[in-house]
Amino acid sequence: MASSPLRSLKFQITTALILLLALFAGAILYTLHHLSRYHEDAVTSRVAESLDFSVQRLLAQGQNYLANPPRDYATYYRDVKLYYRDLEQHLDDIETAIHGFATGMLPKRLEGLDDDMELVLPEHVRSRVMALDEHWREYVGRLRERLGDDKAQPRLEWAAQHVVEFTPSLAVEVSDMVQALRSSLNTHQDGISRVNQWVLVFAAAFSLAIVAWFYLRVMRPLASAASAYERVSQGDFGHQIRVCHDDEIGHMTRAFNILSQRLNALFGLIDRLQTGDDLRSTVATAGRELGPLLPLDWLEVVLVGMDSERARVAAWWSPDDRPAPEGLWLDLNNGDAFGEALAARHPSRIAIPDELASLQLHTALILPLREFSDLDGALVFASGDADAYQDDHLELLRNLAPLLAHTFSRTLQFLDNERLAALGQFVSGIVHEIRNPLSTIGLALDYIDGREDLPEAVTRRSGLAAGEARRMERLLQEILLYAKPVSLHGQPTALTDWLQAFVEAQADLLADRHQRLVLTIDQPACVELDGDRMQQVLLNLLRNACDASPPEATITLRLTTSGGVAHIEMHNPGDAISETVRGRLFEPFFTTKAQGTGLGLPIVRRLVEAHGGVMEIESDSDRGTRFRVCLPAIPCP
What we know:
The chain has helices at 9-67, 73-103, 123-147, 156-233, 248-274, 279-290, 337-343, 391-450, 456-483, 495-505, 507-513, 531-548, 579-582, 600-610; strands spanning 105-106, 117-118, 298-304, 310-317, 329-331, 348-351, 363-368, 377-383, 491-494, 516-521, 526-529, 554-562, 565-572, 614-620, 624-634. Helices cover 59% and strands 14% of the residues. A hairpin with a 2-residue loop joins β12 (554-562) and β13. The protein has 637 residues and is of the alpha+beta class. The protein has 3 domains: 5-209, Four Helix Bundle (Hemerythrin (Met), subunit A); 279-398, GAF domain (Beta-Lactamase); 491-634, 2-Layer Sandwich (Heat Shock Protein 90). It is rod-shaped and about 200 Å long. The protein has 14 helices and 15 strands.
């Protein structure tokens, strides 16, 4: 079931980052806004201080004028140019500033302003400004009356007396207004500082909360998952992690738990399959262990017959002990999906085969085994649910195919080995039972062959019978040798001396056939060897080489060593062996010789494999045929 997008880590982390960025962006914008307000407050404070300074200058100039009144007209007119001009300038500056405070708009012509600036003053400051504005209008009105209307000859002395008399009270009101304004600005700046501090505290707390959330929801689950993966990599299959949240890490944790369960089930399957002692128990074990991994109401093993036209249901299993299918032999020539799936080299999903229809099954998975083993057959997984098997089940079986193929091949090989062992014991008993009367027959034929009073036809027939008896005796010896277990008495042997002795011992055999045996030593080697058994191997190969070679041919026996392996090669220049015949040379009772038993090379291979070696064959029309015995080399003393 799909989880809500609100629970996904991507959404939550993105939301947290957006909130954090929004918080810091808001704090920055708030700070920038109040920095602008701080600049406006600083300008306002500077204008207020300039107003206070202008009032003080107005009073100082009035006092100075009264202290130094003009002595004559020339001095008077000088003061008109200087004092009167400064007086008008101060009055204009004071008027502009007070009017700006009163109207809430400071004009840009005031010192320090680049443009008109709107003021937002607290109510208590604004009341002082309005009182100051009223006082100023009354003050400046009386001052204008004292100056008179004649600007060429203003009454400067009267104006100076007015300034000295009434300016101190004006200065007090200006000072009170400036103090109230400063107090308001300080309060405002303190408020901005407190807000910024709380914003920073909240941002830090929110950041710590995000870090803690990220640790608890992301880092700690990831660390737990990493630890779990490490435990599984060290062999703790089946280890599970507690799923705490329905997010991406929770999904990963569930996937890990499923993987761990499957690994545990697979290793349990491997362990239990190794203990299966017959095909039915192996099928039952596979069914029980694979049940948690895929839907399974029926499991059967189908083996293709030697004619490749029919298949046999060799074993089956179901969790509810359903009865055997209706047909144990299946026709593979009717062109249905089952035959095509059986011939394929990959798992296939098909409708239920006909022989399983009576078991109330509706869909099946076919797992061919020939791709991964020499077992020509398939495993059939079936379910009563028509939609039970999905693509992930096919992928699972595709990954398990080598394990299942090798396991069932090994089980059948064990069963075949047990059958061959029982057959070997039976054959040994039969051989012993036949050899006794055969020996009696041989003695009787030898007695008849020794008589001189018998007709020639009788003598000839008895000779043929004696020869067949001897061939039968040899065949029984080879059958007995092939059937009974091989026991070796190995000892470290230097192959150079041992092969030289073998070549010298076969001089008479080669002389009778007018052929030569040449020994070539490329690299000396030592092996663990049962001399009698290995001599039997090389003697069989030499006789075959002599039979395959023309008269006066040279047969080569060569010793080489590479990669810790000693190679004993018997080469004859005879006709090449066809690929079809090469593929069957080691089959029991297969022979191309009229008088052959077909057991020589199978016995040779058994003896070589008992020494821990392998047999190799190379044959072509240009270089003849090479039989190579490969044995593990040991350090020479």
